[in-house]
Amino acid sequence: MATETVSSCTGSNLLQPISKIINLPLDQVNFVVCQLFALLTAFWFRLYLHPRKSSPLVRHVVATLLGFYLALFCFGWYALHFLVQSGLTYSIMILASLEHMHKYCFVMALGYLSFCQITRVYVFDYGMYSADFTGPMMVITQKITSLAFEIHDGMFRKEEQLSPNQRILAVRRMPSLLEYLSYNCNFMGILAGPTCSYNDYIAFIEGTAYHQKHQESNGKENGKYKQSDPSPKKDVIYKLCTCAISLLVYLFVFRICPVERNIEDGFIASTPFYGQVLYLYLSMLATRPKYYFVWTLADAINNAAGFGFNGYNKDGTPRWDLISNLRILDIEFATSFKMFLDNWNIQTALWLKRVCYERCPYNPTAATFLLSAMWHGVYPGYYLTFFTGILMTLAARAIRHNIRQHFLGSATHKLIYDVITWVGTQIAICYTVVPFVLLAVGPSLKFYRSWYFCIHVLCLLLVVALPVKPRHLRLKEQQNSLHQAPCGEGVAQNSHASTDNNCNQKGKST
């Protein structure tokens, strides 16, 4: 009853009968229906409000109003928090000096998000992990802070002080209030993101994105695409099929393998350790399709509106992965902790890297994990997960630096190494994220006690026993290797990610 009361006061009750029929919470039904509506609207937006037919002003206004409508339908008057957060930070951008504006916006945006998360969790529904109004605020916080740093880079810092990626992302003029609200709250990304750079969004609205990508493309195989806009139809259909499969897998498999069984006394007492390891992997594997569904659907919505074009492949086919948030096969077959993280929630990882890891002068890895925990919310399980993640990252780095080169002598040895590291990575990831799913301290510590904190201990031993070169020496070696082998070989997965992952002087550790 309490759940229904909370749901009814934070969004529309129009879909309550459907919620009861399919036995899913109303807020989740509202979310999915609104995303499907946004998908249909996105096709209309691309066809009838194309930049050749409509002015940027009209596109901004329509995208913003539709975004607010969806927010009100899902979250009721709690959606006003989106306006308050955006309004406060825009005032800071306008009134504060460019030298410190980005810091003030960062503190205000993250502080307001944390305030809303604390009140929602500890006042309303502690322990209920569901769609809530702070979810969109998390994406808006990313956009606000990213834009603040990009304005600081473009309007205050000198050109020679910027990295190659920062030069691309730098914003050279202050956005208008309409542009700012459209960027933060457009209907394509208001409910589930993903985060994108301000320059990419404005290029999409103004209709210059295709032209820029055409200029970047080269080779005869791409010539026939330069006269017309590429169609996202095939990519949207493929992503919708991925969504359908992910949703079916989640609905059926998750109920068979609930994560909570990992901490049941009877299960722990009656199941041998190898059985507990196998069940842990299966139960955590069953939770991932939920995220695959949400992020892939959000990506399809943006593509359907014409946003997300990222140039052409070598065979001349268009790529629509500019703001994609995950690469499923790379996640499931990851052979390192870093590879998993690089392909999971990609846009959030890039945000963490750009606003924290690249700019933090001390202990950037720990600072980045702490920021990620604060951004996710106030449940203690988040902090247990990210604290464990720090140990995992340091241990994985130590193994890679000291052991990997010994397995590169032959294809057989490399295959053995890949199999071993795949198994180790999957177990480590599952072990790490259990508190993220369980949320509370008690159940999370009960799980770790049932494993005798064995992976924590193993990671600590590896970090102590295996030396790793200091960060500044590793950066120097990376810079020297870049000078010897210039970046640009192969097709990048993401226009900005290519700079981040291949040309930048720091590796991603988020």
Shape field: globular
What kind of sheet is the major sheet? Answer: none
Query: Percent range for helical residues?
Result: 55-70%
Low-confidence sequence ranges:
1-9, 126-130, 219-227, 485-499, 501-510
The number of helical runs is 24
Q: Structural class, from secondary structure content?
A: mainly alpha
Note the gap between the termini: 39 Å
What is Rg?
Answer: 23 Å
Overall mean confidence score, pLDDT = 86
Reading the helices and strands in chain order gives: HHHHHHHHHHHHHHHHHHHHHHHH
Q: Note the beta-strand portion.
A: under 5%
User: Strand tally, please?
Assistant: 0
Short description:
This protein is mainly α and 510 residues long. The protein is built from 24 helices and no strands.
Tell me what you see in this structure.
- By secondary structure, the protein is mainly alpha-helical.
- The chain has 24 helices and no strands.
- It has helices at residues 2-9, 16-22, 26-48, 56-75, 80-95, 101-124, 134-155, 164-169, 177-185, 198-206, 209-216, 233-256, 265-270, 273-304, 328-332, 337-343, 346-357, 364-376, 380-402, 411-438, 441-450, 454-465, 471-484, 495-503.
- Helix 14 (273-304) crosses helix 20 (411-438) and helix 19 (380-402) packs antiparallel against helix 20 (411-438).
- The longest helix has 32 residues, at 273-304.
- The two termini are 39 Å apart.
- Residues 1-9, 126-130, 219-227, 485-499 and 501-510 have low confidence and may be disordered.
